[in-house]
Amino acid sequence: MNHDDLNHWSKRAADWTRAYYAGLRDRPVRARTTPGETAAKLPATAPDQAEPMETIFADFEAIVPDAMTHWQHPRFFAYFPANAAPASILAEQLTAALAAQAMLWQTAPAATEIEEVMVGWLRDALGLGSHFTGTIHDSATTATLSAILTMRERALDWRGNEQGLAGLPALRIYASDQTHSSIDKSARIAGIGQANLVKIPTDASLSMTPEALDAAIRQDRQDGLLPAGVILSVGGTSVGGTDRVADLIRVARAHELYTHVDAAWAGSAMICPEFRPLWDGVDGADSIVFNPHKWLGANFDCAVQFLADPAPQVRTLGLRPDYLQTPGQSEITNFNEWTVPLGRRFRALKLWFLIRAYGLDGLRQRIRDHVAWSEELCAEIARLPGFEITTQPMLSLFSFRYRDDAETEALLARINDDGRIYLTQTRHRDQFVIRVQVGQFDCTREDVLCVLDVLRDLTRA
Description:
By secondary structure, this protein is of the alpha/beta class. The protein is 41% helix and 14% strand.
């Protein structure tokens, strides 16, 4: 295959993409396949001779689409979405064509500088203070790991990277019991350990209380442990648990602890000023992460981390051997020093295309619609016989149950086998509940209210 062939097949792929999106509503949302079924359709060994692209593309059409769960389906209400607005898809094609490794300014000047500007655009769009700068990671997990590694080194007076953790004080990180499992993973990877991630119980509003956080920090100090940082949640994955950011940052500052706010999903909603009270006080944080790929329309992967002062994170993660120097340039930004991987994709291009193609007002309207439709659906489900709303909408996320745990679990299985919509479960207050999260980029009010039709149909008997 050469570039002339690429020209032809790119057009063919674009035609396939248009037809795929046009027909998504006619497909079941979740894949109807069994483990190993797709693998069995592939040869056991790679071909020695080149195969015609016509054959390869035909195999793609025959094997792949029906074995995929369709994340861009307008009735995907399961996990937080992984949006793919058309403008973002186009930018990703161009990013693939440029195929740059944007680890240094000199290896991709435009990628570096557009990233700096896009972080500024989003900072202002979310109403954050002008003191924040930042970078784009692959996912919130990497951003959180970067923040926790920074907490570790800052608390250890930068000795961990040089000496290793053996013989140094045991560190403690504090988070609510509503935080995402990526916090646990980061604590493990950072060498802090699961046992030293202190989960503070939440109150009726699903927030840590300042008193409980303060007491845990003081107790650990009395026990000879070393508090390192606090992770706050805004829009937790399970049912949207949200900490009272301002009050808890005040506690962290009183103990001189580094703070990181995980707003991976809910952060996108902050482009709408009316939702910003949900993270009141966030300007006092040291680090904030939100994922434009979750609710703003950017293709996965795209996680933006804002930093009040990048110096501690760069000191923690930066490493500049001779072969990564840029002769004659000492003050340029090399974003590989702000994150864990050395290699970096040109992720800022899709943000540039996305924001310009829809405008902040267009993106705001989508989020406002999703929130309003979620609230409407929640109110309608509450009226159905046998149904109970277990958590009220946090933006566009709420949960419900049907009769008891066994009935709820059985209903969820019927829902997803039915294929018209896709929902997932969680446990809340020791109950099995079903989550509904509205956020697919092109969904309509009718798509959202289809959930109501499915619930009625499957429980009518």
